[in-house]
Amino acid sequence: MNKIIGILLFIFTLISCKTSEVEIFVENGLLIENAQIISPENQTISPDSFVVVNGDSIAYVGVEKPIVKGSFETIDAKGKYIIPGLIDSHVHVTATDALSDEEEMENPEIVASYREQLPKSYLYFGYTTLIDLGTAKPERLDDFQKAEIRPDLYFVGGGAVIGNGYGLSNWNDDIPNFIYQENEAYPIPEKYVKENHSPKAVANRIAASGAIALKTYYEPGFDPTQPPFPTPSEALMEELKTEAHKNNLVLVVHGNSLEAHRFLGNAKVDIVAHGLWNWGDFRLDSDSGIPEEIKKVLDIEIKNNVGYMPTLQVINGLRELTDSNYLNDSELEHVLPNGLIEYYKANSNTMYVNVFGDAPKNIISTNFNRLSGRGKINLKYLFDHGGNILFGTDTPSSPTYGNPPGYNGYLEMLEMESAGIPLSKILAMATIENAKAFKLEQLYGTVEEGKKANLLILNKNPLQDITAYNDIDRVVVNGQSINRTNLSAKNADE
User: Which InterPro entries match (predicted)?
Assistant: First the structure.
């Protein structure tokens, strides 16, 4: 009897082992072994885990080694860390950093090499998903999409500019989705039909274009000597929000001043696309810290769960025009063609004058350091009080070489850490929280079965060391595994 029981137990054990095996057939897939997978949502680390990629999707994640059949590459990630690919939710991929239209036409070879490198530069620093928040040249989005190796790219449909406002101060500008605001004291040119430029018509067109968000602007301008640009009324902003949401679009609004953030916080827009660095007449008090009036505006945004993009590198990127050593940073060689770097070096003084005129560099640098400090203290206040912070860089933000693609995101992370933001929060902002904010969480943000196979294999733990984002072993984008060194601009130059 004992012998029979022993045989039955042996057979049952075999059956149990057989049924516990995971068998997966893949075509052009990956098997990543022995990885430590980090969850951005709860910062847990799953040790010695396995990830199977089938095509451009994740087919399996678990601690049990699967039986994989078919055509696949095996990657041993022992001692390494897997995180979801990073998301930069505020880029502009249609311009050559700091070059005017005329300069682009005069330097076609430099522009061509830059455009060829651009998608790789974002991937070099782990950005596998980008959201272009507005472009005056949408055809260049198609150029970006034609690259064989590239991040996933989403867009906002050209921008819903307020008629005669910021971004459309000249009616000859070809921006079809401008919004006519009845209460502004200017006539719409006869060639336009008002009904085609209502919030409803514009939102419908933007949604039909395949965009995921509608972007508009609250920007009275930067020159106090000039009349302010028209800005949206409360009624218009409410209508825009209603029409955007009817079309399943996220409402993103440009704004960086105290006036803009107060208005947009009260309007309960989904996302403000810049930090609050323009404080008007208020100053940072070294004794009492952030002014109470600034706190009140940030509190409104926190209460109404408005998404807040700090975009710290906007200020820093402009400041770099004052730094004669900036263009010697060796990291630039990985994201910019050498010809473009040399062009910047030869024309850096002219570029400075084009932006700042004859203002002394030391004064400009001091002023921008002050603005940068405001951005950081706002960010820390938002974090300490439960604000909805999102990761976006506005790359490139303005006519400066100080916002290099990909590298600018890493610099933004360094600034966030120096502002006192925990590494766990930085990881979450650049992955799952961005994905949720733009309704992309079914595809991105975590390492889970069924999601896009956009992954980073890191040599360091990003929950312990911010430099992990500059120590990437491999980038997986749409299921394709790429050694990081193969993405460097130095390869193209050699």
Answer: Amidohydro-rel, Metal-dep_hydrolase_composite, Metal_Hydrolase, Metallo-dep_Hydrolase
